[in-house]
Amino acid sequence: FFFVSKVLPWVTREMSSSDTEEQPLLIGVDGSLRELSDDWVEPVFPNTPRNPSSNQQGAMFFYLVVLRILVHYDSGAIAALIGSGSCDGKDHACDNSVTMISQLHLSYAEAGLMAGLTYLGLTLACSFGGIMLERYSTKLMLTLSLTCELLAIIIFACSTNKYLSLASRALTGAGQAVFIMFIPIWVDEFAPRTSISWWMALSQIGSNLGIIFGYVAAGVVTSETSLGWRWPFFFQVIVMVPAILAFLLIDAARVDITAPARSETTSPGEQRNAFVEGCLQFPQVLTEPVFFLASAVLSVMYFVVAGMQVWIAPFLHAPPFSIPMTTIVLIYGGIATTAPALGLVLGGLILDYFGGYERMHSTVTFMFLCALVGISASWAVMLTTHLAEAAFLVWLVLFCGGATVPACMGVALAAVDKHLRPIASSLQLLIVNLFGWFAGPLVCGVTASVMQDVRWGFRTTMVSTNLSGLLLLMLRMVVWRRNP
């Protein structure tokens, strides 16, 4: 709710400003309002901490994006290290003396849980992280949260007990929560008005780059050296320490989003009433069939993405492919970088061509066609024995998923009343985190444990794409019944 309460007002202002153009007003010293004269000149304020120059804004934004890459680095590293679950002794990553799964005595199900616990901790911490940001110093809360994540990573890197390691992964996600919520709010507060959408997009790309960077770095280090699986996390700690220390030197006014001039003053009772009122609106949102089905489709897509990044390495490392870990992480790193991004761009362009997601018929049809292509590719990748074909088919699955994401989000929010859309956005984020990012690695790991074959983790990911097709077929039927 905190995220939506900060971002939604900007969206509302942008939408309203495009519909009506009001005559600017000037507040006089006596508090009266009057129209601006034609010869009025806007005053130029000095570059104070709360009114920085464009160069200072850009430097601060660059620092935050780099910090976001570091924050998400360990999620990719964990996914790559689970790839050592199908070791056969062909490279350093398959030496039992340096394998994370072997040293921590993890089953495939526990390995999947370890990959998903970060998102569970993140989801739970978001429930109170927003209140902490609202009531206390932004700089203080960010410093504490990043320090919490740093300590959790140190515990994980040094731990030899699997239960302590699992707990540290959940704590890592909890430490990320405040920073992840802070980034889009800071962009809305401090970014140049003409570049706010571009800055918002770049800030989101930082998390993807961090995961891919961690995936490739951990995979290459454990495959090509004898350093062991702990060193990728020690590297993260070594880099994050000066990054956090540098954050302490930043003027609090450059990151503060709780200043009286920038936030509304509400009592604790009003905040609790707003929270309770929002929770009471959850059933009204969930009972909307279009929202529920579109959000379920979105969860399946992220279920596939989260499961794939963990279990594709064991699948390709095992027969009949038997590909070295270094080759796997480099190939998948390229796939994960290009396929979703191109899918997002092309999917957005196609939707705009057909009139946007508010035209439900064409949008749902487009989503269903993308799902059919992705489902076909997911079945084909399980049947092929050639690396080039498998890589292309995996790329196609992620491309189709990326092309469907904007439509899914838009259809879900467009289906509910405008006053319920902030609640719907928060609820959709909760659903995606729990049933997508958290459930994906866990369910696939449980399947691999039950089948006693690590390749079933990836197969489960591919088979789950069929659920998206079924849900989209149901969504198409609902839309056609409402508007024949």
What this model shows, in words?
This protein has a two-stranded antiparallel sheet with strand order 1-2. The chain has 484 residues and is an all-alpha fold. Helix 4 (108-135) packs antiparallel against helix 15 (421-451). It is built from 17 helices and 2 strands.
Strand order of the largest sheet: 1-2
What is the average per-residue confidence, as pLDDT, rounded to a whole number?
80
What's the Cα radius of gyration? 24 Å
Taken together, the total number of domains comes to: 2
How much helix is in the residues? over 70%
Which regions have little confidence, pLDDT < 50, spanning 5+ residues? 1-34, 42-50, 88-93, 259-265
Secondary-structure element sequence? Answer: HEEHHHHHHHHHHHHHHHH
Determine and state the CATH class of the largest domain.
Mainly Alpha
Short description:
This protein has 484 residues and is mostly helical. The chain is built from 17 helices and 2 strands. The chain starts with a helix and ends with a helix.
Describe the secondary structure blueprint for this structure.
Elements: H1 2-19, E1 25-27, E2 33-35, H2 54-81, H3 100-103, H4 108-135, H5 138-158, H6 162-190, H7 196-224, H8 231-249, H9 268-280, H10 282-286, H11 289-317, H12 325-353, H13 360-383, H14 387-414, H15 421-451, H16 455-463, H17 465-482
Antiparallel strand pairs: 1-2
